[in-house]
């Protein structure tokens, strides 16, 4: 790069840094067609369990059959002809699931629903096969479901979870947010995970939270107790007051155990000891002369 180019770049950077806030606002303004492409969080909302779709084998299924009251469900809203973003979201899910001890089809299920009514069963089945091959866990085949359906059915689900998207007729593509939704075993919205890169801790804690206390060990309960969801940062954060409270409780228990042990030891030391049978005096009889 020439000296003149470097000087021009530095000058442009200085002008941008010196620009008023309104100038930056103009730079960051979304195009009008993306203004309503977002997620309006509906925490606690019930997804429609009576809505019907087609699974990867073309069978008519009700969405409610994937909520068994025991396992949470991870919901992906994508479409299979998406040129880039949907694959990035699915790949992000696959990466974080590979790091997670819980397995699809065992502790939780996944429903990947296409938002494009033009997606076919055949395309859905092919995508599912590639995903299962990449995930490579034996339980996934019974727990990862790929669904397609008509516009009305799709809209009922997206509206329930607050997933707002728009079809661009000019490009023949959908504009949509990058988000994964965690649903409770009864089909209520538990948490949202945003972006194309998920932290394993966020997924694990989100699933623990969405599981509504089912299949959660004591250690996992303690972990969940120490974390809370930060709606601004869109991730779980360690809550210092809870850690201090938990640490204080553990300290009290340990101190009580130690004092109890010392008290018992001191009490046993003060108790009179019974005579040893081997050291007690013996009376021996002698024969009469």
Describe this structure in words.
This protein has 289 residues and is of the alpha+beta class. It has two domains: 166 residues, Glutaredoxin (3-Layer(aba) Sandwich), CATH 3.40.30; 47 residues, no CATH class. It has eight helices and 13 strands. The strands form five sheets. Strands 6-5-4-10-11 form a five-stranded mixed beta sheet, sandwiched between helices. Strands 1-7 form a two-stranded antiparallel sheet. A two-stranded antiparallel sheet has the order 2-3. A hairpin with a 4-residue loop joins strand 8 and strand 9. The chain is elongated. The N and C termini lie far apart (129 Å). The C terminus is likely disordered.
Question: Uncertain regions: pLDDT < 50 for 5+ in a row?
Answer: 5-30, 213-230, 236-246, 283-289
Give the percentage of residues in beta strands. Answer: 15-25%
Number of helices: 8
Mean pLDDT: 75
Strand count: 13
CATH superfamily of the largest domain: Glutaredoxin
CATH topology of the largest domain: Glutaredoxin
Approximately how much helix is present in the residues?
Answer: 25-40%
Shape: elongated
Largest sheet: 5 strands, mixed
Protein topology:
Layout: H1 3-18, H2 21-27, E1 38-39, E2 52-54, E3 60-62, E4 73-78, H3 85-99, E5 109-114, H4 121-135, E6 144-147, H5 151-161, E7 163-164, E8 166-168, E9 173-175, E10 179-183, E11 189-194, H6 200-210, H7 218-226, E12 227-230, E13 235-238, H8 240-270
Parallel strand pairs: 4-5, 5-6
Antiparallel strand pairs: 1-7, 2-3, 4-10, 8-9, 10-11, 12-13
């Amino acid at each position: 790069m020439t000296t003149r180019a470097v000087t021009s770049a530095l000058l442009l950077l200085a002008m941008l840094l010196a620009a008023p806030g309104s100038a930056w606002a103009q730079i960051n303004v979304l195009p009008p067609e993306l203004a309503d492409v977002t997620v309006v969080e509906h925490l606690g909302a019930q997804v429609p369990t009576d809505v019907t779709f087609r699974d990867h084998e073309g069978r008519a299924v009700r969405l409610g059959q994937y909520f068994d009251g025991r396992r949470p469900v991870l919901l992906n809203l994508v479409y299979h002809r998406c040129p880039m973003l949907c694959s990035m979201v699915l790949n992000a899910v696959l990466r974080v699931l590979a790091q997670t001890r819980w397995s699809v089809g065992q502790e939780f299920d996944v429903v990947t629903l296409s938002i494009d009514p033009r997606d076919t069963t055949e395309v859905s089945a092919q995508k599912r096969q590639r995903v299962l091959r990449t995930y490579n866990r034996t339980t996934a085949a019974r727990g990862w479901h790929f669904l397609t359906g008509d516009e009305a059915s799709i809209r009922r689900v997206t509206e329930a979870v607050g997933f707002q998207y728009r079809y661009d007729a000019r490009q023949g593509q959908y504009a949509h947010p990058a988000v994964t939704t965690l649903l409770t075993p009864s089909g209520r919205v538990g948490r949202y995970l945003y972006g194309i890169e998920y932290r394993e801790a966020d997924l694990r804690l989100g699933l623990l939270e969405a599981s509504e206390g089912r299949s959660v060990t004591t250690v996992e309960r303690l972990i969940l107790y120490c974390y809370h969801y930060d709606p601004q940062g869109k991730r779980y954060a360690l809550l210092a007051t809870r850690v201090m409270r938990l640490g204080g409780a553990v300290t009290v228990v340990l101190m009580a155990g130690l004092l109890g042990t010392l008290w018992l030891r001191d009490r046993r030391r003060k108790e009179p000891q019974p005579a040893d049978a081997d050291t007690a005096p013996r009376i021996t009889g002698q024969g009469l002369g």
